[in-house]
Fold:
Amino acid sequence: MTYGKVLNIDLSRKRSWVEDRYELFNGRIGGVGVGIKLLEEELPKAADPLGPENVIVFAVGPLTGLYPMASKTIALFKSPLTGNLGESHAGGRSAVAIRLAGYEPVVIKGASETPIYVAVHGERVFFRDASGLWGVGSSLTVGRVIREREPGAGIRSIMRIGIAGERLVRYACVTTETYRHFGRLGLGAVFGSKKLKALVISGTRTIPVKDVKTYRILYDEVFNAATKTAIMRKYHDIGTSMNVSPLNEIGGLPTRNLREARFEDAEKISGEFLAENYLGRRVACSHCPVACIHLAALREPYEDEPYFYKTTMISYDYELIYALGSMLGVSDTEGMLRLFHEVEVLGVDAMSTGVVLAWMTEAFEKGLISEGETAGLKPKWSDWKTYLKAMRLIVEQPTEFYRDISMGVKYASDKYGGADYALSFGGNEMPGYHTGPAAHLGFLTGARHSHLDSAGYSLDQKVLKESRKPSVEEAVDYLLEEEAWRQILSSLVVCFFARGIYNPTLTENVLKTVGYGFSSEDLVKLGLEILRDKNRFKLREGFKIGDLKMAERIYETVSPLGPIDREFVKKAVDLFYVKMGL
Structure:
């Protein structure tokens, strides 16, 4: 069996071609392992993230379309938010669509002079005029229009941007299908800079396996673990929103820009409350039996039509609840859901948006900005209606201030002040965990500065139950081991929710059925090497380990493990990069 068909799409010249990169896949599996090498090759050093020289690599893995929960696509690019590695993951149908079209990576380069979208249907690539879609107010409408124009219903993926991407908001996202996103680090702005409104992809190829008998046995093992054990049950029943109540209970739920770590109205935005009162349906990514995507049904009356109602289905999870709920002090459940919907319509990352709005609120309170900057808005905690208006102004940018906060919280605080409470890590806005030192170390040292790097909050909660604090060595070893193994999961490409199923032994066995001969020891070593590659890329693009620091607010607000210790953080950051060999 061979892998490695790379589809290259040049937007500048409106042409495409296929390359065979079998040798790269043979040693790197797929996904992020291959993607980071392609990014190194294709992206000129010090390229402008919003220039035509930036490239986008969409990569899937050898398990895609064959095993349950191997359902993610990895996007790699240079981030316009941080200026170095951009890496974002999305579920939905994109991974299977890319694989069935006959490709493992898709590499997009160049930039169009006029708005276009690209449609890939198997071996045929079409460059479609998107002038009529450019400026459409809702990304949901864009998706509906393209669905009517393109073939492949049921098997295609539609990845598109909203007006936030068109306006180059540095934390704009790319929506795939509906309710799944390449959310973090500004891929939507890269699409917008290339005048690329959407990428549509479909295919009908079959995927062979090397050992059919063993494949069936292992498939059933994975499927049964996902559906008949407790490993994945929580994701199906309530989803990640189940984190709200326990984090609030231990004092790890960031509230009002992390002024506090408990929210007095957490019950009104909890996963249990949403499930009991608003849950409309659950949906799943392609080839996943879990259905962890939870949709709230928001029923609203029409203003001029009594007894007539519209129902809007709105996706929710913990990250949205943290960023647009507790972080802003919003406890009005329906108001919070409207903020979630506006994120979907505009096409912005919810976490970055929430952190930016929280900083804006505090900066307004302290007189760093006034109504002149905010176009008359008076942001205050819990006022979801004002936040709703502010979100749209971030995209429309009627004043210089809104252009500045569209660049991210670090950029805004560097200009206006308030860096002590501007919550970002390496330029990426803070995720929703204030559980202790390991969580924040993970955000600092992770290749993406994201909650999806290294899961330090899990170590914090483990040692909390044991009534102790982690040592520097323990925290670093945990983060490094977890972060390295996640590179293998991201090369397969497997959803991180399934990390309890795809352990090294199972991964070794499933890879044999598709033609790979890695031992579990080989995989652990490869994961660490891929992690080094990602950090070497960051260093190439100007990342400086010595520049890593956290906002004062993080040290000020007590975590469940007590105050975060500065010396602990400094020693741990230094040791992490020494152990990685950088």
About this structure: The two ends are 36 Å apart (CA to CA). DSSP finds 23 helices and 17 strands in the chain. The mean pLDDT is 96. The domain at 428-580 is CATH 1.10.599.10 (Aldehyde Ferredoxin Oxidoreductase Protein, subunit A; domain 3).
